Amino acid sequence: MPFIPVVYKRRIRWGSRENRRYNRPMSWITVHGSPGFGDQDIFALLDTGADVLMLPESVAHTLSIDIANCPKEPIEVASGAHLKLPQTKVEVTLRGRRLTVDAIF
């Protein structure tokens, strides 16, 4: 199979003002709460190979997400440890595009 290069539109250059001069794939995302609970902006490391979005519990509390009642999903983290973490769907906006994703806390 031949190598096919991927070209991204509106690419943020590493070390630029848009990513706070970091040499990592970082960007602002907005996590949306239920109507009436507001949104939270987070400067986050983007892992395009991740299966789910990992958020701190403080975001769940700010957006009134009851993680005590979320189903616990088995997750293998980068260290190889196996954990059961609360998971739910959240809406996020990343670079002007709003979508629903699975999130763990």
List the helices and strands and how they pair.
Blueprint: E1 26-32, E2 39-45, E3 53-54, H1 57-62, E4 72-76, E5 82-94, E6 97-104
Parallel strand pairs: 3-6
Antiparallel strand pairs: 1-2, 1-5, 4-5, 5-6
Give the end-to-end Cα distance, rounded to a whole number of Å.
39 Å
How many E-type strands?
6
Q: Which value, in Å, is the CA radius of gyration? A: 16 Å
The portion of residues forming beta strands comes to: 35-45%
Q: Low-confidence runs (pLDDT<50, min 5 residues)?
A: none
* Overall spatial form: globular
H-E order: EEEHEEE
The major sheet is characterized as: 6 strands, mixed
Helicity level, as a percent range?
A: under 10%
User: Roughly what is the average pLDDT, rounded to an integer?
Assistant: 84
Structural class: mainly beta
Can you tag this structure with a few keywords?
mainly beta; single chain; 1 helix; 6% helix; six-stranded mixed sheet; globular; 105 residues
